[in-house]
Design a protein that fits this description.
Number of domains: 3
Shape: rod-shaped
Largest sheet: 8 strands, mixed
Number of helices: 12
CATH architecture of the largest domain: 2-Layer Sandwich
Oligomer: single chain
CATH class of the largest domain: Alpha Beta
Helix content: 40-55%
Distance between the termini: 52 Å
Order of helices and strands: HHEHEEHEEEHHHHEHHEEHEEHEEEEE
CATH superfamily of the largest domain: Histidine kinase-like ATPase, C-terminal domain
């Protein structure tokens, strides 16, 4: 099991990896040394055969009786006097046998008789050969000199190579074994020094005051630690923002709820104090109105808090025209009270990826503002359009409008246009803005109908799933409001008995046939918010 400590983990891994790498390198060096020693042995025994073939018969007999010891090479100056590779302790006796062209033995080492090698058949070609003599491996080299009519065969124990290679292996291994403890200590020190920024960061976080949310700065942050510091600072910034929103929510809720709660208390006291039944009833009606206003305000504040916390919202494909039609129907009574007419033009195939409930709240708030702040007897237009860029929702009126200088403040919480007497909390467009952000929609404000009043323009980027029905009818509800989208159920062209058979109209609603003129876009060059 790998330790949880980074220092111990690195040291352990280095302690495992380095011997493995050194072992692989040592084994490779050993194999290479084996091949090189084999080549050297072959070259040396061939050189000995070439020297022997040059000797005359008396010299050969003398050499055979004296035996050959390659250690004499050093004294003869053949070997390198500075060579100290440990091979001097190896047995270096070489045996030989010389035959003439008739295969008669001219001279040979007497030890060959003991090894039963005197009468061994001679290879027909020059070259080296490995053989067994009395169970021991020997290396032989045969040299056939046709010009001199001699065949020289040199014998040498094969263990000289293995002994030399073992000496080389020891020279490679011992430095590694000796260096490992020092290397481990060195790695431990280096790793400890390298991890010092982590200890500094740990101390900076441990001893940091609980209310400090400014970025952590530990000086020259190493590249490897910088992502961790940046992530912590980013988390602190998000926490600071979350705390600020929580404080703002608490302050706003306390401030905004204070007025209706005070009014409720006063009206309740009036109802308790007066004996007049009519006055009591009026006071209780005011209490109910205050409760409704407080409930509405609380719901809006909670919705804003939910949106501000970036709660994960599940989206689905929904019809924006259907939601807008339902919202218009829900506002019918309110619009009737102000004798307002509402014109709705919606693409049946204008579908977006959004959450239905939040989309309904968005459209409800836009319609509520249009009805609430529009003039009595005025007009409201609701358009749901579909083009190459996506889906566009337009809600505009012909009321008193809003000064262009105030557009930038409309999405601020509790912002109220000065001089407007309509009741409200100032949270409607703030909620619309937060929902638009969640749906990655582009929110903009501009002029309303006929370059008067106020208009809200909301552009959704969406996938088109089918060709839209032609907008062949426009519904104008006045004084009533339409209860459905009159292009929601457009039929295929081949099934239509009438161009507008799919646009049924309720009582009191006039249908204007023909393609309506394109909606005016008065939002250009005005405030836009993403």
């Amino acid at each position: 099991m790998i330790p949880s400590s980074i220092r111990r983990r690195l040291t352990l891994l280095v302690f495992i990896v380095i011997p493995f790498v050194w072992g692989a390198a040592g084994w490779s060096s050993y194999r290479q040394a084996t091949r090189e020693v084999s080549k050297w042995e072959n070259a040396r025994i061939a050189e000995l055969a070439q020297i022997v073939v040059l000797l005359d018969e008396p010299s050969l007999v003398s050499l055979a009786n004296a035996s050959i010891d390659w250690r004499d090479e050093e004294r003869a100056g053949i070997a390198n006097a500075g060579n100290d590779d440990g091979d001097d302790a190896l047995p270096r006796d070489a045996l030989f046998q010389v035959r003439d062209s008739t295969n008669r033995v001219l001279a040979g080492s007497p030890q060959l008789n003991v090894l039963h090698a005197w009468d061994l058949p001679v290879p027909v070609t020059s070259g080296s050969q490995d053989i067994l003599l009395r169970g021991r491996p020997w290396r032989t080299y045969t040299l056939r000199d046709t010009a001199r009519g001699k065949t020289v065969r040199v014998f040498e124990p094969a263990n000289t190579k293995s002994g030399l290679v073992s000496g080389i292996a020891r020279q490679i291994t011992w430095p590694i074994v000796i260096a490992m403890p020092f290397l481990t200590l060195f790695v431990w020190i280096v790793v400890s020094f390298s991890l010092r920024p982590l200890r500094t960061l740990s101390d900076a976080i441990r001893y940091r005051h609980i209310h400090r949310m400014d970025p952590i700065n530990i000086g020259r942050t190493p590249t490897e630690v910088r992502p961790l510091v940046d992530a912590i600072n980013d988390m602190q910034a998000r926490l600071q923002d979350s705390f600020a929103r929580a404080r703002a929510f608490t302050a706003d809720a306390a401030h905004e709820l204070k007025t209706p709660l005070t009014a409720i208390k006063v009206q309740a006291q009036v109802a308790l104090a007066t004996p007049d039944r009519a006055l009591q009833r009026l006071a209780m009606q005011h209490v109910l109105q205050g409760v409704d206003r407080s409930t509405r305000l609380t719901e809006q504040l909670l919705l804003l808090a939910r949106l501000d916390e970036h709660e994960k919202i599940k989206v689905m494909r929904i019809s924006l025209a259907k939601i807008a039609s339902d919202a218009i129907a829900a506002k019918e009574q309110h619009a009737r009270q102000k004798r307002m007419s509402v014109a709705f033009d919606g693409e049946a195939k204008a579908e977006i990826l959004a959450e239905p409930e939040l989309t309904k709240i968005l459209v409800d708030n836009l319609l509520d503002n249009a009805v609430k702040y529009g003039v009595t007897g005025g007009r409201i237009e609701v358009l749901v359009e579909l083009d190459e860029a996506g889906v566009r929702l337009v809600v505009r009126d012909d009321g008193p409008g809003v000064d262009a200088a105030d557009f930038v403040h409309l999405t601020s919480r509790f912002f109220r246009v000065i001089g407007n007497q309509a009741s409200g909390s100032g949270l409607g467009l703030s909620i619309v803005s937060r929902i638009a952000d969640h749906f990655d929609a582009n929110l903009s404000f501009g002029r309303g109908i006929g370059n008067r009043g106020f208009g809200v323009y909301l552009a959704f980027r969406s996938e088109r799933i089918a060709e839209p029905c032609p907008r062949s009818c426009q519904v104008i509800a006045g004084p009533a409001i339409s209860r459905r989208s009159f292009t929601n159920s457009c039929m295929p062209r081949k099934n239509r008995s009438h161009p507008h058979a799919s646009c049924p109209a309720p009582a009191g609603v006039a249908i204007v046939t023909g393609n309506p003129p394109p909606a005016e876009d008065n939002s250009q060059h005005l405030f836009k918010r993403r």
